[in-house]
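pinned: reference chain
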Amino acid sequence: MQQTAQKAGINSTISAYFARAALPSQQETLGSVVVEVLRSGRTLNRKAICMRLLTRIDKASSPEEEQHLQELIKLLFCE
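pinned: its C-alpha cells
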C-alpha cells in the first residue's frame, strides 16, 4: 500500500514536470509572435507584439499558459 502511494506521488510529479515542459520558452513564444506580426505585414513594434500576446491570453488553454504570456507582456515594459 505504501508503494502504491509512492508511485502515485512520483506519477503526479512527473505529470507536473511534463505539463510545465509543454509550454514553449519565452524566446520561442516571442519568436512565434514576431513571425506572426511580420507575416501579417504590420510594422514590428512593441504595440504589435503586445496586441498579439493579449490575443493569445484570451485564447489561453491553461492558467500556466496565461501566466507565461503575462510575463512576456511585463518584459515589454521593463526599463
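why pinned: Helices lie at 2-21, 26-39, 46-58, 63-76. The two ends are 54 Å apart (CA to CA).
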